[in-house]
């Protein structure tokens, strides 16, 4: 009997048609590896939700086949779901030293232990089952980022991770162009590449541009400087520290995630500074304001972040004072624009000078623009191409770029989360679909809030709630007391007494109808009360509050 050749499958579980939640499954026969395991921040309509993580039903159904999770870098959209996923799927984790260092902090916060963590570095090659993985150095807005080559019996896959082609990186470690070209010469079956900036023409500026802007700002600032950026942007933090040293300023760090990353990166040697530069926040008043720099979280206007609290005069240790120069060294993540604008307004009200414009050179992207995407295509020359990491329009734009460069349209796959892409040495196709989607994290609950709960929350947020309390005699099926109506978020009761009295009358009428019709089922009575009251309130107010009838038995 001839043994059927195993198939090579690529299954994105997150990161396609969205920014964040990056997760890709590579399967050959009975072996699976997973590239990245990220989270996404909730959209506006996800009321009360803290985080969004990928649905890993497919991995749980095939848990015995999962050999490892391999990480490209330490950003939340690539490692943030691990504290939740590892509780259900404890497999070895591979990543660079800084990536694993940041992950270790996240796991400790969530009381999660992982059996095996394997540190790798750019240039390493390791074997996991039938997969031979190579780690390729790339530049990004966090140190120690890598692209990954995966050699399989069918052919080689290259996953770019998040990258940009920075010719003058802060740490001097230039992208390994030679290795990409070498892989291209050997032949690459499938390329998966970052699409975040696929709409942007030209090249993404070097991270060093921000250092030049820091220098200019520090030179002109007379008083205290406060810099808000992503805690994981180690290169930017390093440039801020270097500039502070140049102008003889002390540096204090604010915000839990910023403190954690600075400690980890310093311990591992990714951030360096002379002794005595870093001071505790409590010590800032021991120095003139002209000698202080504060590095903080809150560049996205997050309500509980240090910068937002300072802007609202709600921080325990730092108040914004006239003369402060505040640098917001990040661009708003889509959806966060309003929160960022609100924070900037409050900072201006406090008398601070705020530098935030994207054109001011205070922030550059960590993702490749169109010319860099073309260069990657030319270096690797893949047979098949899957654009990843971006909203749907980014994926389509990236696909068009590849087509413009001569790749046949049938060899490009603009896929969606959950689609199974199957490859042979000559052919590729989308063959089926597996479970994929969003799992919502709310407090300690993971996945217990779904569409129905969110719909209820939306209704409560829009029109409030009315609770109707009725006491009934079960034997005789008659009303003993009530109805009483409690309103929250619907109308101000003291100014709407007539409306509430009429609402009670409508409830009484509905109960009388039930009694006359011989209806004794509690569920039917509640439904009739809800319908009658809802109809009346909509006629009078054009609002649809949530109506919750409660029947108490005596």
Summarize it.
About 30% of the residues lie in helices and about 25% in strands. With about 550 residues, it is of the alpha/beta class.
Which structural class do the helices and strands define? Answer: alpha/beta
Helix proportion of residues, in percent? 25-40%
Q: Please count the helical segments.
A: 15
- The coarse overall form would be globular
Please render the helix and strand layout as text.
Blueprint: E1 8-14, E2 23-28, E3 31-35, E4 51-54, H1 57-61, E5 66-70, H2 76-79, H3 82-85, E6 93-95, H4 97-109, E7 117-119, E8 125-128, E9 131-137, E10 146-151, E11 156-159, H5 177-186, E12 190-194, H6 208-220, E13 225-228, H7 234-246, E14 250-253, H8 256-267, E15 278-279, E16 292-296, H9 306-311, E17 325-328, H10 337-349, E18 353-355, H11 370-380, E19 384-388, H12 392-404, E20 419-423, E21 428-433, E22 438-442, E23 445-446, H13 451-463, E24 465-473, E25 478-488, H14 497-517, H15 522-541, E26 546-553
Helix pairs in contact: 4-8, 5-11, 6-7, 14-15
Structural commentary:
The protein has 554 residues and is an alpha/beta fold. The chain has 15 helices and 26 strands. The strands form five sheets. The protein has an eight-stranded mixed beta sheet with strand order 7-6-5-3-2-1-20-21. A six-stranded mixed beta sheet has the order 8-9-10-11-12-19. Helix 5 (177-186) packs across helix 11 (370-380) and helix 6 (208-220) packs parallel to helix 7 (234-246). The longest helix is centred in the last third of the chain and has 21 residues, at 497-517.
């Amino acid at each position: 009997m001839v043994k059927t050749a195993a198939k090579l499958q690529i299954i994105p579980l997150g990161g396609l048609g969205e920014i964040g939640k990056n997760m890709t499954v590579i399967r050959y026969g009975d072996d699976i590896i997973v590239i990245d395991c990220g989270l996404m921040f909730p959209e506006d309509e996800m009321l009360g939700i803290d985080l969004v993580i990928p649905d890993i039903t497919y991995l749980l159904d095939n848990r015995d086949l999962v050999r490892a999770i391999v990480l490209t870098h330490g950003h939340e959209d690539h490692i943030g779901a691990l504290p939740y996923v590892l509780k259900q799927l404890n497999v070895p984790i591979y990543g660079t030293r800084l990536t694993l260092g940041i992950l270790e902090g996240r796991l400790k916060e969530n009381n999660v232990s992982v059996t095996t963590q394997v540190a790798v570095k750019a240039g390493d090659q390791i074997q996991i089952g039938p997969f031979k993985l190579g780690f390729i150095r790339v530049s990004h807005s966090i140190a120690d980022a890598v692209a990954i080559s995966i050699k399989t019996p069918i052919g080689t896959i290259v996953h770019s991770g998040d990258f940009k082609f920075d010719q003058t990186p802060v740490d001097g470690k230039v992208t390994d162009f030679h290795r990409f070209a070498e892989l291209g010469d050997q032949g690459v079956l499938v390329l998966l590449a970052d699409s975040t900036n696929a709409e942007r023409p030209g090249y993404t500026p070097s991270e060093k541009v921000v250092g030049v802007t820091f220098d200019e700002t520090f030179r002109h600032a007379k008083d205290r400087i406060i810099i808000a950026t992503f805690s994981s942007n180690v290169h930017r933090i390093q440039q801020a520290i270097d500039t502070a040293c140049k102008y003889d300023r002390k540096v204090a760090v604010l915000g839990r995630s910023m403190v954690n990353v600075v400690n980890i990166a310093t311990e591992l040697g990714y951030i360096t500074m002379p002794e005595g530069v870093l001071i505790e926040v409590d010590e800032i008043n021991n120095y003139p304001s002209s000698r202080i720099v504060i590095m903080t979280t809150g560049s996205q206007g997050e309500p509980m972040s240090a910068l937002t609290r300072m802007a609202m005069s709600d921080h325990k240790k730092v108040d914004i004072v006239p003369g402060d120069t505040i640098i917001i060294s990040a661009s708003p993540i889509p959806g966060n624009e309003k929160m960022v604008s609100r924070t900037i307004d409050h900072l201006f009200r406090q008398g601070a000078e705020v530098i935030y414009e994207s054109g001011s050179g205070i922030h550059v992207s960590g993702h490749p623009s169109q010319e860099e995407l073309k260069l990657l295509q030319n270096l690797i020359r893949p047979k098949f191409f899957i654009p990843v990491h971006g909203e749907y329009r980014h994926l389509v734009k990236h696909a068009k770029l590849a087509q413009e460069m001569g790749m046949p349209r049938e060899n490009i796959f603009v896929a969606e989360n959950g689609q199974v892409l199957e490859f042979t040495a000559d052919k590729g196709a989308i063959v089926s679909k597996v479970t994929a989607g969003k799992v919502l994290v709310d407090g300690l609950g993971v996945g217990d809030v779904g569409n129905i709960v969110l719909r209820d929350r939306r209704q409560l947020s829009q029109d409030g709630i009315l609770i109707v309390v009725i006491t009934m005699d079960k034997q005789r099926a008659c009303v003993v007391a009530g109805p009483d109506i409690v309103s929250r978020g619907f109308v101000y009761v003291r100014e709407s007494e007539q409306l509430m009295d009429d609402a009670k009358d409508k409830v009484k009428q509905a109960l009388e109808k039930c009694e006359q019709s011989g209806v004794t089922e509690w569920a039917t009575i509640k439904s009739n009360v809800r319908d009658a009251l809802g109809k009346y309130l909509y006629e009078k107010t054009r609002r649809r509050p949530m109506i919750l009838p409660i029947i108490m038995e005596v």
